[in-house]
Design goal:
Layout: H1 9-16, E1 19-23, H2 29-39, E2 42-44, H3 52-58, E3 61-65, H4 71-87, E4 91-94, H5 102-114, E5 119-122, H6 124-130, H7 147-161, E6 164-167, E7 172-176, E8 179-183, H8 196-208, H9 214-236, H10 241-254, H11 257-263, E9 266-268
Helix pairs in contact: 2-8, 2-10, 3-4, 4-5, 6-7, 8-9, 9-10
Length: about 270
């Protein structure tokens, strides 16, 4: 039996250079595009509904982010999800700040009910909000909670929407099909870089373009990003989040499957 996840997917990603369509938020769009380029994919950040079908048809995966939403943004997300569904392309949804307001929660639930994604990338606060629990979020951050709570929320959310879930935090939990994997590592400095979760979501899209199952893509994105964070912290050498942010991009560019094999700390729970 081959090791899980298949780390050689990173080589396939760089050979294929898949086009990943990202409807990002205004805070993280530039970093999301750059981390895709560094990892080996090709980003497209188109936002116009008039070209949605054409852009989706040209892309290998679609990543939808609700961090800075308005009515038009949600209409676009629903349209793109439908277009990708018709083509059989994977969709990643990052419901940023879903517990911030009743309006945002209702819009994201509508999107999930109409067209469930292949991968739902959340933090604990977002997961609890979607599950109808008390997801108290500080802005769009919500990485606390004990490991058992994160594990349970990931499993429950995966069962509710029938998709793979990547719940990020001090350790990530990737859940699908009643199974859950815990991915450890990374760096506490990730919490000081705005959009680090958004970048993880677009990496889910990149790996979904070159793997057979959304669950494996979610686990690969987590393993890759944890390794980037660990190496970026070492390179920053105590300088702080600015150097760490640059180090994330450098690590995404330089990592090899052999590096990932040394860094990976993943276990079935």
């Amino acid at each position: 039996m081959s090791p899980f996840p298949d780390l050689t997917a990173l080589d396939r990603l760089r050979a294929a250079r898949p086009l990943i369509h990202c409807v990002s938020n205004i805070v993280a769009a530039n970093d999301c595009a750059n981390v895709l380029l560094a990892a080996g994919a090709s980003p497209m950040m188109a936002q116009c509904a008039l070209e949605a079908e054409a852009v989706t048809a040209a892309s290998s995966a679609t990543v939808l982010n609700t961090g800075t939403p308005d009515e038009g943004r949600f209409d676009l997300c629903r349209l793109l999800a439908r277009c990708a569904g018709k083509l059989g392309h994977p969709v990643v949804l990052d419901p940023v700040g879903v517990g911030t307001s009743p309006w945002r929660l209702s819009q994201i639930r509508r999107l999930l009910d109409e067209t469930p994604p292949a991968i739902l990338r959340v933090n604990l606060g977002e997961a609890l909000a979607l599950l109808g629990a008390s997801g108290r979020e500080q802005g769009v951050d919500g990485g606390g909670g004990d490991p058992a709570a994160r594990r349970g929320a990931a499993l429950a959310l995966s069962a509710k929407y029938g998709c793979a879930v990547l719940l990020s935090g001090p350790e990530d939990h990737a859940a699908w099909g009643g199974r859950v994997f815990r991915i450890e590592g990374g760096s506490a400095l990730t919490a000081y870089v705005t959009g680090s979760g958004c970048m993880l979501s677009v990496l889910c899209g990149a790996f979904a373009a070159v793997t057979d199952t959304p669950g494996e893509a979610a686990a690969l994105a987590s393993v890759f990003w944890k390794s980037c964070a660990r190496r970026a912290e070492a390179a920053a050498a105590g300088s702080g989040p600015g150097s760490f942010r640059a180090g994330l991009m450098d690590a995404a560019y330089a990592l090899t499957p052999q590096d990932l094999a040394r860094d990976t700390r993943i276990a079935a729970e």
